[in-house]
Amino acid sequence: MENSSYNSLYQSYYRSIERVSTTFHRYLFDKIDWSSHIIGIRGERGVGKTTLILQHIKETFEDLDKALYVSLDNMWFAGNTLSDLVEYFWTHGGSHLFLDEVHRYPKWQGVLKNIADEYPELHVVYTSSSILKMEQKNGDMSRRQIVYTMRGLSFREYLEFEGIYKHGALSLEEILTSHSRLSASISSKIKPLACWEDYLRRGFYPFYKHDAAGYDDRLKEIVNTVLMEDLTSVEDVSYITIMRLKKMLSIIAESVPQTPNMTDLYQQIGTTREQGLKLLGILDRAGLLMLLSAESKRLKQLTKPDKILMGNANLMYALCGESNIGAVRETAFMCSVATGHDVTYPPKGDFLLDGKYLFEVGGRKKSFEQIKDVENSFLAVDDTEIGHGNRIPLWMFGFLY
Fold first, then answer.
1. Within 10 Å of residue 295's Cβ, how many Cβ atoms?
2. Element containing residue 224 per DSSP (H, E)
3. Whether residue 393 has a cis bond before it, omega within 30° of 0
4. Per-residue DSSP letters for 259-282?
5. Model pTM?
6. How many Cα atoms occupy the beta-carbon half-sphere of 93 within 13 Å?
7. Assign residue 80 a region: left if phi > 0, alpha if psi is -120 to 50, beta otherwise?
8. Burial of 47 (0-12, 13-18, 19+ CB in 10 A)
9. Per-residue pLDDT at 297 exceeds 70
């Protein structure tokens, strides 16, 4: 194969590095151990995985030819193999290979394992769809790699991305014990409630800055792409299954956060209970839904969820229009706390965090009536700038990552 056949990949790589901005970094940027042999970064479509790895290359490599970024959905791979590219890259002095959209490459797990075996000094970073079941799909790779999961922008990140306010991430313990002081300090510098409302409507996916007017339409396109392209590259699914997924998502979008009658739901989409649960799991992994159960997500089997929420508030507004405010609040809370914390459905209240902290979510007039006798119980209240006691402003949980 002639060396010139690689020119298009390198030219695309150089242009991508030139275009990427390094003025803002996502929360995951400094958490990744970039020295690891093989790194996987999985996440929902549109959350900024590509930007993150391009920023790392731009800020790390003085000699750009030591690294190479390629997207595996590039047409170049229709007539060439990843193995050929790796051999060329390594023999020409490359040391760090960055593979985007790895799930789009046929039998990528086996190819990546061979690369790890045959090129032990080559560093590989890859990104993948959140739909992938990493623990089941990778086999031997699970012992060779570190996998990170990337979510959309937190409220804290949104404020920094907008140039409004910069603040470090807060731990849950800091929020629970010091929220009054922290919220008063932040509120003295910005108007958090107005910013929070904007964030819930259009601040979860970083690309909103480039397509503000068409943001909702872009989110609908993402849903379609996830189900029509990402899913089919990961799972062996039929066209009718994809149509059932779309119908299921549409039905649930109109009823969240309440759990719909599952028997009726399965009948409406024309499927069995077992298949229906599998479809729910796919939508959950894709980030289009969040499933809440009384059992830890790390331990639970495929069972009927106790509560179903949309994947984030932006999706709610895009798919449902003017959504129920109670549903938006619960979705925003769950979306904020699910990164780094175990969230389950409690006998009382709305959410139980790490098996210890009980939360009820509502507006500023929300009372403790339902959870008044429960130890370590808190209210996450909307329309409130500064909290008091166990009444914590809802927006503060957006500072958790």
1. 12
2. helix 215-225
3. no
4. PP-HHHHHHHHT--HHHHHHHHHH
5. 0.92
6. 4
7. beta
8. buried
9. no
